[in-house]
Design brief:
Blueprint: H1 2-15, H2 22-39, H3 44-48, H4 52-56, H5 62-70, H6 82-132, H7 137-155, H8 172-275, E1 276-283, E2 286-293, H9 295-329, H10 342-392, E3 400-401, E4 405-413, E5 417-424, E6 429-437, H11 444-461, E7 472-479, E8 482-488, H12 495-501, H13 507-526, E9 530-532, E10 541-543, E11 549-551, E12 558-560, E13 569-570, E14 594-595, H14 598-613, H15 624-629, H16 649-658, H17 669-672
Antiparallel strand pairs: 1-2, 3-4, 4-5, 5-6, 6-8, 7-8, 9-12, 10-11, 13-14
Helix pairs in contact: 1-2, 6-7, 6-8, 8-10, 9-10, 13-14, 14-16
Bound molecules: adenosine-5'-triphosphate.
Adenosine-5'-triphosphate (ATP) binds at residues 411-412, 414-415, 417, 419, 432, 434, 470, 487-490, 494, 539, 542, 552-553.
């Protein structure tokens, strides 16, 4: 208890450093207290000098004495009036205690306020901590909880922590502690308030930001749904427009194609009148088709006939002149006056010769014209066939295949296929649709064979991407007996039609075509999976609208497997192909031929020869069957060049290399591609 008083006093002295007498008083009091406590075990009256009655009187109750003992205030000259002093002092202490409690209560209020302010901050911090420590959630939460409990312990003592003693008095020691703690808090209040103001401002601005963000989110959502609706409308509109567009485009294409069809038929009629037509000839029960020449050819032929007659008449006249001249020379003439002088004979003969020369020129002109007519006739016959095939086709009614390809006019008909010009309504470009039809009369086995063959061709062709190879875009089934391959459309004529129109090409033109064919072949031989085309011929060389040469039709192509030896792979489809263009090894019946890219080198050599000289070097006028029967190609050991037209030695040399009879000596595609004639370089 004495220690408490000392503590209270020292706390008081600390809190009131302006009282300089306080340490001295404290020392005195300590000393007196020490004396009192020691005399308390003896008679107090002796110690205090009180009357004897008080000596025999029982000692005062300890509680009161204790109260007196607790009185700390003293001075050196108080000794005589000690009791009075203690009473006064007790009153002062009580007053001080009351002040302290009031101050503490005030401090508690301030602290509580601070705690109230701190708590949200603390909670926010805790939640921030929580967020930060999410991966180790358990640990983070426990630490933050610890932090919060500590703060509340320090700043917010509950009623139980007010340390009220058993007699209802507040524990003074505890109060002093609290005061010591609260004092610095009081000093920080301003800072706290400032901080709180800042935090409140921050909260307000964050709330404002949040409000704005919410507003923005609402706006965005509104905009999103609006755009979504617009997009939906647009898509619907686009779909409608697309359908309309497709309808308009296909209607336009159909009307153009119909007009083209009409024009084609009208031209045929006109040309037929001029060049000829197919008539029917009946021989017994046999009805066969025959060609009847048109008026222009008839006129031409009659001109030629009359020229021939004139020529023959002049020849006859010349003969008789010569006869007369020789008889006159022999002196057989009876009438000297009627005799013709030598000079006249010479003159007459010269006239005849001159007339004959002019007839020959005329005749040559007519013959050239007739050749031209023949070419026109050939074109007319092909066009007639095309129109007839178109009229007989079941795809001639402008169908849209696979919801995409609008079929227009027939380009031509092959062995088992019809090729239509078509319009791709998705890519908006022209394509060629090749319709492979299975004959309904075929056996199931034959159908399966055909499908296997076509699929093989399709699988090879679809992997080929090169400017000099016709692209294969798409394949799909049309119906049970038909499937379609969609090819790059080549609007130019094929080389076969070109050579039929102009059998001899200028060397420059022939060279650029063969160079492009070899570029395509080099591509086929540089891939990891090498390919032998095996059916190179003018009909399989197409031209696009700007004249780029493109190789097509991979129906007979062979894939060269990796394990094939240097001599080549076995030819399993002997007999297939177009014989004018195949090399001798393909006709060897004594063993299964081994073939390589050298087959295509031979075919290219034949085509270059044909372009330059207007005919094929071997079996030009022969049928396929005759070529086989007469072993024409097996005997084609040496190529001969006509004197006309004049062709460069470099071109002839290249042809010779390509048409090397011995397969082993013939260069392959990659080797021949190094020939200077096939390389364009600035001189
Ligand atoms: N991609 C194409 N672009 C333009 N016309 C083409 C295209 N493909 C083929 N043709 C033309 O279509 C016609 C028929 O071609 P197709 O390949 O079916 O016949 P073919 O080669 O004469 O016969 P086969 O394939 O039986 O030997 C030919 O006149 C050809 O020029």
């Amino acid at each position: 208890m004495a220690d408490d008083i000392v503590l209270q006093l020292s706390a008081k002295s600390n809190s009131n450093p302006s009282d300089p007498s306080l340490p001295a008083k404290l020392a005195k009091l300590e000393a007196r207290m020490a004396g009192k406590s020691s005399s308390s075990s003896n008679s107090p009256s002796v110690q205090t000098g009180w009357p004897s009655s008080s000596v025999i009187a029982p000692p005062p109750p300890p509680v009161k004495f204790m109260e007196q003992e607790e009185l700390p205030e003293s001075s050196s000259d108080d000794d005589d009036n000690g009791e009075e002093f203690l009473i006064q002092h007790n009153k002062r202490i009580k007053l001080q205690e009351n002040d302290t409690v009031r101050a503490l209560q005030q401090s508690e209020t301030v602290v509580e306020e601070k705690v109230k302010v701190l708590e949200p901050v603390d909670t926010r911090q805790n939640s921030e901590d929580l967020k930060r420590k999410k991966p180790g959630r358990g640990r983070g939460r426990s630490s933050s909880c610890r932090g919060r409990s500590k703060t509340s312990d320090q700043t917010k003592p509950g009623p139980s922590s007010l340390h009220v003693s058993s007699n209802g008095q507040m524990d003074k020691h505890y109060l002093m502690e609290q005061m010591a703690k609260v004092a610095p808090a009081n000093n920080d209040t301003a800072n706290f308030q400032e901080e709180v103001t800042l935090l409140r401002g921050r909260v307000a601005s964050l709330e404002e930001e949040l409000r704005k963000s919410r507003q923005e989110k609402d706006d965005c959502q509104r905009l999103y749904s609006q755009l979504e609706k617009e997009l939906k409308d647009y898509k619907e509109h686009d779909q409608q427009m697309k359908t309309k567009r497709i309808k308009i485009v296909s209607d336009l294409l159909i009307s153009v194609s119909k007009a083209e069809r009409q024009e084609a038929r009208m031209r045929i009629r006109q040309e037929s009148f001029r060049l000829g037509n197919v008539g029917v000839m009946r021989a017994g029960t046999l009805i066969s088709e025959v060609w009847e020449d048109g008026q222009a050819i008839k006129d031409l032929n009659s001109h030629l006939k009359s020229l021939l007659e004139t020529k023959e008449a002049i020849e006859r006249h010349r003969k008789s002149l010569r006869k007369r001249q020789s008889s006159e020379n022999r002196g057989d003439g009876s009438d000297a006056e009627a005799s013709t002088s030598e000079e006249d004979f010479l003159l007459q003969d010269e006239i005849c010769k001159s007339r004959l020369a002019s007839i020959k020129r005329e005749e040559e002109n007519y013959l050239r014209e007739r050749d031209r007519y023949e070419l026109e006739k050939g074109r007319l016959i092909r066009e007639m066939k095309r129109v007839r095939d178109e009229d007989g086709s079941r795809f001639n009614n402008f169908q849209i295949l696979n919801h995409r390809y609008a079929l227009l006019n027939l380009l031509g008909k092959g062995g088992f296929s019809e090729v239509y010009k078509a319009f791709d309504l998705v890519e908006y470009k022209y394509v060629a649709c090749k319709l492979h039809g299975l004959n309904a009369q075929w056996s199931e086995e034959k159908k399966q064979n055909y499908i296997r063959h076509a699929l093989r061709e399709n699988n090879i062709h679809k992997t080929l991407v090169h400017p000099n190879i016709v692209r294969l875009w798409d394949t799909f089934e049309v119906d049970h007996n038909t499937f379609c391959t969609v090819l790059e459309y080549c609007s130019g004529k094929d080389l076969d039609a070109t050579l039929k129109a102009t059998p001899v090409l200028p060397e420059k033109e022939a060279r650029i075509i063969i160079v492009q064919i070899f570029q395509g072949l080099v591509y086929l031989n540089k891939r990891s999976q090498r390919i032998i085309h095996y059916d190179l011929k003018p009909g399989n060389v197409l031209f696009d609208e700007v004249g780029v040469t493109k190789v097509t039709d991979f129906g007979l192509s062979k894939i060269v497997e990796d394990d094939v030896g240097s001599q080549g792979m076995e030819l399993t489809s002997q007999g297939a192909g177009t014989y004018w263009y195949l090399p001798p090894e393909c006709f060897d019946l004594s063993k299964t031929p081994l073939i390589s890219s050298k087959v295509d080198v031979w075919s290219a050599g034949i085509m270059l020869y044909q372009m330059l000289f207007g005919k094929r070097p071997f079996g030009h006028d022969q049928t396929q069957e005759r070529i086989l029967r007469e072993d024409t190609i097996i005997n084609a050991r040496r190529v001969e060049f006509p004197s006309k037209p004049v062709v460069s030695n470099e071109a002839k040399e290249l042809i010779r290399k390509c048409l090397t009879y011995n397969q082993a000596e013939r260069p392959d595609v990659l080797t021949i591609a190094q020939d200077p004639y096939l390389i364009y370089s600035k001189k």
